[in-house]
Specification:
Elements: E1 17-19, E2 22-27, E3 33-35, H1 36-49, E4 54-56, E5 62-67, H2 71-81, E6 96-98, H3 112-124, E7 137-140, E8 153-159, E9 162-167, E10 170-176, H4 181-198, H5 212-221, E11 239-242, E12 248-253, E13 258-259, H6 261-274, E14 277-280, E15 285-291, H7 293-305, E16 319-321, H8 335-345, E17 354-357, E18 370-375, E19 378-381
Parallel strand pairs: 6-7, 7-8, 16-17, 17-18
Antiparallel strand pairs: 1-2, 2-5, 3-14, 4-5, 4-13, 8-9, 9-10, 11-12, 12-15, 14-15, 18-19
Protein name: Precorrin-3B synthase
Pfam family, one: NIR_SIR_ferr
GO molecular function: precorrin-3B synthase activity
């Protein structure tokens, strides 16, 4: 059990964080899905109010850096108008990741309606505004991609007509029909808050409570969980994927998770022209779905020239990094610039997934990555 001595202080779009390069805002995007109009608002806000880029987080959310002190109010106004800020009270609680390309390619069930129903139920319940900003909900269509991220509460399709409730990645044994699954997840989130209060805890995650999984399961069903874990899947394959309707989805890796102005311009143009949406993923990639075959090459070329990567063998597929200098005063190095130099010169210090971090907090570190940790005289590899 982890003991917390303070409430979670994750940044949001209203509750911003003061960083070395200005205010930082985090915009929650349940399921990672953004309409054409929302893409346009976010792109405009990044260029006009922030440092010109959108950052992708490991939970499929978006960050704007370098905001001036008076910019958050204008940002909130724009987000509200675009439907990205349905409740100021709940904004930091809306951490919901969903299977990539659900309903378009793969999976047992289209989980997009579950995401929308859960988010609406969350916002409608004042009590759920108390969920910590680190609390994560996963909605998995059966492929195992987001269940494997270890959400506190999860829905995992086990058949086209049955959804399992997971708690800290463990199957609770409880099942619901797709139309009722969001209600079960909402009840589990309420049970977490009730158990946290009962234990006198300020826990941010379910696993931080004493026997949190079992205690929440008992609150829901009167019995402990069986303890099985659904088989984990992997993130989306970089490149082109054919959809069940014959259209094509492009999955582009975003180096260091920064969507810069040129890439944002392309995404705005493509989504506006097609009236489509995009999906941002916890693997710091962007999905452009519903492309007619004749548009695929042109869109891929434009996004590639704007910095996105469509080659799964690229070294960028192995590299993540925290903000580093100059954005974070705690960092010992400009880790993004150093990581980019190592990729460009073929001098990455290790093979396989690696996370470059400016200090021991290792912000944004994906599970399974080797640490490339900045120290006073360079970098230490594999630091614990």
């Amino acid at each position: 059990m982890t003991t917390r001595d303070r409430s979670d202080a994750c940044p949001g779009a209203v509750q911003t964080h003061r960083a070395a390069d200005g205010q930082l805002a985090r915009v929650r995007v349940p399921g990672g899905l953004l309409s054409a109009a929302q893409v346009q608002v976010l792109a405009g806000s990044a260029v006009e109010l922030a440092d010109g880029a959108l950052e992708l987080t490991s939970r499929g959310n978006l960050q704007l850096r370098g905001l001036a002190p008076d910019a958050p109010a204008e940002l909130a106004r724009r987000l509200f108008g675009a439907g990205l800020l349905p409740s100021e009270a709940h904004e930091t609680a809306r951490n919901v990741v969903a299977s990539v390309l659900s309903g378009r390619s793969g999976g047992l069930l289209d989980v997009r309606p579950l995401v929308r129903a859960f988010d609406a139920g969350l916002v409608a319940d004042p009590a759920l505004a108390e969920l910590p900003g680190r609390f994560l909900v996963t909605v998995d269509d059966g492929r195992g991609d987001v269940t494997g991220l270890g959400g506190d509460v999860g829905l995992h399709a086990v058949a086209a007509d049955a959804v399992a409730l997971t708690l800290a990645g463990t199957d609770s044994g409880l099942r619901a029909a797709p139309a009722d699954a969001h209600t079960l997840a909402l009840d589990a989130a309420r049970a977490f808050l009730a158990e946290r209060t009962a234990q006198g805890s300020q826990a941010w995650r379910l696993a931080e409570l004493t026997d949190g999984v079992g205690a929440v399961a008992v609150r829901l069903a009167g019995h402990p969980v069986p303890g099985d874990r659904p088989a984990p899947g992997t993130g989306p394959v970089v490149g082109a994927t054919e959809q069940v309707d014959g259209l094509v989805a492009l999955v582009g890796l975003v180096p260091l998770g920064r969507l810069t102005a040129p890439a944002l311009d392309v995404l705005v143009q493509v989504t506006a022209a097609l009236g489509s949406e995009i999906q941002v993923t916890p693997w710091r990639s962007v999905v452009v779905p519903d492309l007619p075959d004749e548009f695929v090459d042109d869109v891929a070329t434009a996004l590639h020239h704007a910095g996105l990567v469509f080659d799964a063998a690229s070294p960028w597929a192995q590299v993540t990094a925290c903000a580093g200098l100059p954005g974070c005063a705690k960092s010992r190095a400009d880790v993004r610039a150093d990581a980019a130099h190592a990729v460009a010169t073929g001098t990455l210090p290790v093979a396989g997934p690696q996370h470059w971090a400016g200090c021991e907090r290792r912000c944004g570190r994906p599970a399974g990555s080797t640490d490339v940790l900045a120290v006073e005289d360079g970098y230490r590899i594999g630091a614990g």
